[in-house]
Amino acid sequence: MTSGYGGGSGVGVKGVFIGAGCNRIVNNVSWGACDLVAFGAQNAVAIFNPKTAQISTTLPGHDAVNCTQWLPSNKFAFKDAAGAIILWEYSVLEGKWRYVQQVPQLHKKGVTCITGIMVSQTEAVFASTSSDSTVHLWEVVFPSTSGGDCNLLHLDSLCVGVKPMVALSLSELPGSAGYLVLAMGGLDNKIHLYCGERRGKFVRGCELRGHTDWIRSLDFSLPVCTTGEANNVLLVSSSQDRGIRIWKMDLRDSLDSNQSAYRKEKISLASYIEGPVLVAGTNSYQISLESLLIGHEDWVYSVEWQPPSTASSEGIAYCQPQSILSASMDKTMMIWKPEKTSGIWMNVVTVGELSHCALGFYGGHWSPNGDSILAHGYGGSFHLWKNVGTDFENWQPQKVPSGHFAAITDIAWGRSGQYLLSVSHDQTTRIFAPWQNEVSLGDEESWHEISRPQVHGHDINCVAIIQGKGNHRFVSGADEKVARVFEAPLSFLKTLGHAISQKSSFTEDIQVGVQILGANMSALGLSQKPIYVHAEQQTPDRNLNDNLDTFEAIPDAVPVVFTEPPIEDQLAWHTLWPESHKLYGHGNELFALCSDHDGTLVASSCKAQSAAVAEIWLWQVGSWKAVGRLQSHSLTVTQMEFSHDDKFLLAVSRDRQFTVFSIDKTGTDETSYQLVSKQEAHKRIIWACSWNPYGYEFATGSRDKTVKIWTVRKDSSVKQLTTLPQFNSSVTALSWVVVSIARAMTGSLQLEWKTV
């Protein structure tokens, strides 16, 4: 991360913020007993603390993370799309992570689900299923001390036929010491039960029919105690048929070899009336449908029993609460409980989200103590509710970490570094800033997403913040032929004032004259229309049903000033910026943007395969007229940047060349330019470039894994100064920053780069 140029020494780097969205897939999130949440973020596993709403670390090692699973002893396993399972260890006392080992890769395709249980203080059994139609069971023995080695034993492999399983759940059978039951469901609409001893082979027991579509989630309860002894266990299942089913496995008398004929007849009769019977060793379990829960209007992707609570009154170590959490694609989560007098299961709590997308939740999870519930949705977002009521339940939304769920294509710092603006292929523009009133332990700044200025209908490729005086503005370019200009509304300016209230650099001067309070999303999701301050007080006369969240209607935004970091629903709807101008001219999709330091010019480029299309357009800020069309490259210009005094414009391209233009802003409406240098600098595509902030040196980074340093001499010719040591992969982004003013005056600079 550090490399000195001109004799500079290394510089310490400390991470202060991680922003990431959740992968859009079922089983991707799990909430551990140590009160930390693990989720897949592209090819890494991210860990966040719900109490601080901050992502603390990421654990790399996968190609694409499909799902995560904690084991109750605060140690867990992760799976990825390549069929690999990696074990990590978390030390609660030290708060540190350690890579333990990768489980032998027996799956040939992506792992879709994993489940595990603790069978002792140091031993756990877990099972994994994959789209290769196999299920593997493992036993892991954890080390007695932190940092020790895990012992891993492969117990069994099960072939499940042509249609793969996508949901698993493991449980110990009550009354049968050492016996486990494995429930699996998938594409054949049936639940398959396998049972076996801990280290023995698992045999097929029976199957449960009832669902009419794919099984999406399964979860066993703890053994239920009715007469002081654990004699039954409950299994909850959900399906794409929108239904939830609760199955009861009731312990029956032990089998007697002398009564085999009678037992066969009894099993046959019971199976016809009640359901199948599961035989495990010398015990049998009558299975019956306990309840059918109907309430969701779309696929139910997850169901989960509320975590057990300590119950000392009955002398039982743990008590299984009769409460189920379900999450659905209808954008809601529901809590189900049996009615006290009749015992009929009822929906007692419903929470949900309001989003631009018609798709809802991929999963829902309980906190360890059962007072909070977490959902992750199609937009890569988290939604957290906490029961803050005392005498009655009162579930209120809470802050959660956020970030992009697709590739981040460009970033830009706001003026004076007040905030960071990012754009992504998830079709959103987001602003992250430190919230001074939200100081975490150690007096460190707490970063949050404070605005989502643009929610678009195309993948966004580039962004440039317009510098200089006046209101905050930026230009973005997406997979379309037009660049769009956005200007900060009054609600954002006041919210930013609360976020940086302890910084003296912020003034309220720019709020004067701003008459736009916020913006509304258009029906097609492309343009964002302004909401004016004087119109905010007007209440439109409309039917009450117009506010319903339907496919045909889009609710109006209600821009407000936030005095604390906004939650997901507020970000998605009420923090949009109005679009002020469109810049037409390019023949293909926009690819790169940059602004000069005076805030008078914006340069843009688009995807190109010919010299005529690869030209750079110069736009005058304010009038937004095209004042120049710079031609030099033959393929897409990948990045551009103005020098510190705006006298030069540097551009790099897929044609492996860089060009330097001299820029002369002779008048208010006139801009002249001239090509002063053009060189083939690398052997492969040049992805990135950056100027020395205090000189005429610049750096270029390429797919050839090298970074080269150049300088513009007094005669405007360009000379190469040095080449940095070769990296292990392509250099896709870099930025030249000054270590300190004192060192910069002596010519000692620090180059910061990033490789992917």
Could you explain how this protein is built, in words?
It comes from Prunus yedoensis var. nudiflora. InterPro entries: Elp2 (IPR037289), WD40/YVTN_repeat-like_dom_sf (IPR015943), WD40_PAC1 (IPR020472), WD40_repeat_dom_sf (IPR036322), WD40_rpt (IPR001680). Belongs to the WD repeat ELP2 family. One of its GO terms (biological process) is tRNA wobble uridine modification. Pathway: tRNA modification; 5-methoxycarbonylmethyl-2-thiouridine-tRNA biosynthesis. This protein is mainly beta. The protein has three domains: about 270 residues, YVTN repeat-like/Quinoprotein amine dehydrogenase (Methylamine Dehydrogenase, Chain H); about 160 residues, no CATH class; about 170 residues, YVTN repeat-like/Quinoprotein amine dehydrogenase (Methylamine Dehydrogenase, Chain H). The protein is built from four helices and 57 strands. Strands 18, 19, 20, 21, 22 and 23 form a six-stranded antiparallel β-sheet that branches. A four-stranded antiparallel β-sheet has the order 2-3-4-5, with no helix packed on it. A four-stranded antiparallel β-sheet has the order 6-7-8-9, with no helix packed on it. β25 and β26 form a beta hairpin. The longest helix has 14 residues. The radius of gyration is 30 Å and the shape is elongated. The N terminus and C terminus are likely disordered.
